[in-house]
Protein YhfH
Amino acid sequence: MVKNIIEFFRNLPAKKCVECGKEIEEQADCYGNKCDHCMGLHDL
């Protein structure tokens, strides 16, 4: 059963920004749905 769960998460599509559609690099504790650029964090 554990193997099936691992495969399930491996096969999920990449998370994308809701504004521009760019693929977002996911982090374990992040639930955001916008990329850094759309949030205005690209210049920091």
